[in-house]
Structure formats: C-alpha cells, structure tokens
Amino acid sequence: MNTPVLAPPRADIDTDLELLLLIRHFELTLLDLFARGKVAGTTHTCLGQEHIPVALKPLLDDADYLFSNHRGHGHYLARFGDPYGLLAEIMGREGAVCNGVGGSQHILRDRYLSTGVQGQNVPVAAGAALRLKRTEPGQLAVVHIGDGSWGEGAVYEGLNMAALWGLPLVVVVENNGIAQSTPTAAHLAGSIAGRAAGFGIDYELVGGTDLSAIRARLARPIARARTHSRPLVIEFRTIRLGPHSKGDDSRDPRERARLRDQDWYTRYATTFPDRFATADRRQQELAEHCAREVETRSPARWPAGRNPS
Asked: 273-295 vs 13-35: helix axis angle to the nearest 10?
C-alpha cells in the first residue's frame, strides 16, 4: 500500500509549465494537421482544460487506474509524456500506442483506458475500484467525465455501486459549461453537487487554474479516498476554448473572446514571463518536430499473429 498524500507536493513551476505547454501545443498542432488534410476522422481537443490533469498528476501514481474520455489527449500526455506515440496512434503510423486501431478516442496503455462513449467508463472504473479495494488497498480508480455525461444512466449506476460498496473511486468532472453545442444550463437540472449528495458521496468544487491552490485543496480529499476506500466527486469549473471536435464551434465570437480572457495560458504568461516564453517556444518546437517526424513513418501494422477483427 502506498503512503497516502496528506499534503500537496511541492510545486515545480518549470515542470508544470513544460507539461501544460506540451499539451497546448500538441492540441494546436493536431488541429493544424486536420486543417491541412493530414489527419482523417475526428478529434476533440482539451484546449482550456489542460491544467486539470497537470494539477492532478502529483496526487496520483502509476498504480492508480485512469479512465479517460473522448477529450482525453491531455490526460494521456500528463500520464505518459508521450506525444510521439499518441500522434502516431491518431495518424495510424508506426509507433502508435494501440497499433493505430484506437485513434484519437480509444487508447489502452497499462492502467490507462479512454473511450468515446459518454459516461461508459464510470461503471467500468467502479469495477476496477472494487478489484483495487480487494487486492491493492490504497490505490484509486480515477475517471474523467464532462458535464454532458450526467445525462447517461451508466454514471448513476456506477455512483450507486461506488457508494454502496465503499469503493476508492474518484470521479473528475470537467464542467466546461457546454455539451457539444448545448449550454449546461439547458441540459442539466439541479447540480452536480446535489447528485453527489444524493448518493452520500464526498464532493469538492474547484475553480481557477492555480495548480498549487488546486493541489492544496484536493490533497486531503484524495488521500481520504485512498485510505478510507470511499468515493469522491471533484467538479472542476473550467472552459472549452476550442470547438467540440475539429471545427464545429457555433458559439458567438464575443463568447469565445471572453473565454480566452480566462485562459490559464494568459495568466501563466503574465505571472512567469521569462520562464513561460522559454518553455512555450520549446514545447511548440517539440510539437512541430513530432508532427514532421510521425508524418514520415510507415503505416502502423498489427503485430504478427494478432488480428484486430
């Protein structure tokens, strides 16, 4: 059993900046590749939400299960720091994480799993949490969902089981205020806090993008979920800067401008100007190199003796 984290880990602003900006420039590069016809299919970027997996990273460990969703590139990069493998997966090239059959949304690596099916991973994560409780006490199953997923019955089934069985399940809700093109207020009655309370589940509300403040707020609740094997819902009030997928943003330009004013990117650039500029340039160059290098690779091949069908 791991020693529980009872206080937030010491902030390392340089490490945080590098990871935040790696995710930002990966997503921007990916949208550029789509715009230039270099990538087929679809993708959902996490622009504006990059700080969430970065803030959570030091509060989790590799033995925790992490379940992601359709908007999960930041979750994967925060976990593995592997832009080449992820982009190769999206482009179907050699070195792909899942040999090119998972694409942007469906990734399996070690104890990380993402899916494009809304809310589907909550009961799956509850099952993993049950196994952890029985065989690896002190480990967590963490699942990321959005505000739009609260219209799915699977979410409530998973929460009910987690509450009844006392599971070490952490549900991270990235409430960006919009589900595809529908504002949250138009599709969600009541509140996420009220839903957690209905099951008797611990709940934390997090606003802002200060990584140190977020970790200070969440260190003890997450440690409590570990040591006492009890579920926890964390609601992040955040923003979605980009379109729902590649280019389907129907929001008023004035609304998009207002959201840009709230972006962590602007805040951190102002707070740490010199360090930010250096890290920003380095991660932009890394993302561009990643795109050029992966584009030259051969198509991914399924391993010999295995058939994806």
From this structure: 40
Place of tokens 């504002």: 183
Check pLDDT > 70 for residue 7. no
Helix (H) or strand (E) holding 175: strand 169-175
CA distance 66 to 72: 11
Exposure string for 175-192, b = 16+ CB within 10 A, e = fewer: bbebbeeeebeeebeeeb
Cβ(168)–Cβ(226) below 8 Å: yes
Q: What is the pTM of this model?
A: 0.93
Q: Is residue 87 part of a domain?
A: yes
Phi, psi torsion values for 52, nearest 5 degrees = -70, -55
Query: Torsion angle of alpha carbons 140, 199, 149, 145, nearest 10°?
Result: -20
Q: How far apart, in whole angstroms, are the C-alpha atoms of residue 227 and residue 301? A: 43
Is the pLDDT confidence value at 304 over 70? no
To the nearest whole number, what is the mean pLDDT of the chain? 92
Q: Which residues of 229-264 are buried (b: 16+ CB within 10 A; e: fewer)?
A: bbbbbbbbebbbbbbbbbeebeeeeeeeeebeeebb
- What is the residue range of 221's domain? 13-295
pLDDT tens-digit series, residues 82-131: 999 999 999 999 999 999 999 999 999 999 999 999 899 999 999 999 99
Q: Is residue 3 part of a domain?
A: no
* Residue 302 is assigned to a structural domain of this protein: no
pLDDT digits (tens, 9 = 90+) for 141-188: 999 999 999 999 999 999 999 999 999 999 999 998 877 777 878 888
Name the one residue in this structure whose structure tokens are 């998972």.
102
Per the structure, the count of domains in the chain is 1
